[in-house]
Design goal:
Layout (H helix, E strand, L loop, with lengths): L30 E2 L4 E9 L3 E8 L4 E8 L1 H18 L13 E9 L2 E8 L21 H20 L2 E2 L8 E4 L6 H8 L4 E2 L20 E2 L5 H9 L5 E4 L6 E2 L8 E2 L11 H5 L2 E2 L1 H17 L17 H12 L4 H4 L16 H6 L26
Antiparallel strand pairs: 1-2, 2-3, 3-4, 4-6, 5-6, 7-12, 8-11, 9-10, 13-14
Helix pairs in contact: 2-6
Protein name: non-specific serine/threonine protein kinase
Keywords: ATP-binding, Kinase, Nucleotide-binding, Serine/threonine-protein kinase, Transferase
GO molecular function: ATP binding; protein serine/threonine kinase activity
């Protein structure tokens, strides 16, 4: 697309995603599904979707409306809908820790046809940077201890439904509380929406204009009041596992899993996902363990992952950390690792350790590791 013609606003979705095949332009007051859902605020956004607070005019309740980009809708609509419908059919204590699916439909707009998913309303993701709050510079220990068993029960429930989530990390887990069951509290904690215009670089010409691009964009709400309320009373803290865009249905007759490329952060990918691209409940358990480690060691946006590194690390860098901490992997992976010689010599010594005469760090929980803001997280190692 060439140079970005926009002056990109901070904490807002990427403006260039408003194009044919991209995001649907949404404005406050827009109505969807035969005027059943009215947009009243914005909840957030991701790489492939925007999420909105809507009022269900039939049920007279608030709900969350996730609108996928047109391209993402074509790629994932069938599997994701099958998974969401399956997630409602099981029973068990862990069901309440999975975001409740309410409805789905397709919406045709100027940028294409979009899969729209309606769920219950929840708060921000666990990856929210807590140091922005006045009262907390880290996740309270009581809250962290409460979240761990909830996540385990939620994943156990999904697996009992033969669902593999495929993308478990703090960004796909939401804070929840029964406070959000009150319509009055939803209005209180999500506040009044704020908007801003899309600014263009002087002299630049955007590739697309209305109706492909919205007249304005909406900021996500300030979640500080809600987070402060639940952290002050740890019993209010609850988690909801969300975002099933990478999920799949598991066939118990194939316990090893199925071959599928996952678009998950490399630092959370299990070895079999990296080497064989096999996806199964076991790969979820690896990611769950990494996430638990982050929660228990975390302040700021995220704690330290058990396999150190940032989400942007390459797969080779992540494998290097796995070997450093856990030792040589099975031969079927070790011999197929094409970049091995960049990290280890024939005696299986780390090249950087040999050059710098450094001993590898011991395996263990790095509770005192420095934690940085989201855009300055731990660098990749070599």
């Amino acid at each position: 697309m060439g140079n970005n013609p926009y002056i990109q606003g901070a904490e807002l979705e990427r403006y260039l995603n408003y194009r044919p095949g991209g995001f649907h332009p949404v404005h406050l007051g827009d109505k969807f599904q035969d005027k059943r859902y009215t947009v009243v605020n914005k909840l957030g956004y991701g790489s492939y979707s925007t999420v909105w607070l809507v009022r269900d005019e039939i049920q007279n309740i608030y709900a969350s409306l996730k609108i996928l980009s047109a391209d993402a809708s074509e790629e994932s609509s069938g599997t994701e809908l099958d998974v969401l419908r399956r997630s409602t059919t099981g029973s068990g204590s862990g069901k309440r820790f999975v975001l409740q699916f309410l409805d789905s439909f397709f919406h045709k707009g100027p940028n294409g046809t979009h899969l729209c998913v309606v769920t219950e309303v929840s708060g921000p993701s666990l990856s929210m940077y807590l140091c922005t709050l006045d009262s907390f510079d880290c996740l309270p220990l009581e809250s962290a201890q409460a979240l761990i068993p909830q996540l385990a029960q939620g994943v156990e429930y999904l697996h009992s439904c033969n669902i593999v989530h495929g993308d478990l990390h703090l960004g796909n887990m939401l804070y929840h509380s029964f406070l959000l069951e009150s319509q009055e509290n939803i209005e209180k904690y999500f506040g009044t929406p704020e908007t801003t215009s899309l600014r263009v670089v002087p002299g630049a010409s955007p590739l697309y204009s209305a109706p492909h691009v919205p007249r304005y964009v909406v900021y996500s709400p300030d979640h500080s009041p809600f987070l402060e309320a639940i952290f002050e009373t740890p019993s209010l803290v609850q988690v909801k596992i969300c975002d099933f865009s990478e999920a799949s249905l598991h066939d118990p007759a194939r316990p090893e899993g199925v071959k599928r490329k996952l678009n998950c952060p490399n630092v959370h990918a299990a070895p079999e996902v990296i080497f064989d691209e096999l996806v199964s409940p076991a790969s979820d358990m690896w990611a769950l363990g990494n996430t638990m480690h982050q929660i228990l060691t975390g302040c700021g946006t995220e704690g330290a992952t058990a396999i150190p590194g940032a989400s942007r690390c390459s797969r080779d860098q992540v494998v290097s950390e796995m070997v450093r901490l856990l030792g040589r992997p099975p031969d079927r992976w070790w011999t197929r690792w094409e970049a091995r010689s960049e990290y280890f010599d024939e005696a299986e010594n780390r090249i950087c350790d040999t050059k710098e005469n450094k001993a590898p760090e011991p395996l263990g929980i790095r509770i005192n590791a420095p934690l940085l803001p989201p855009d300055q997280d731990e660098p990749c190692r070599k």
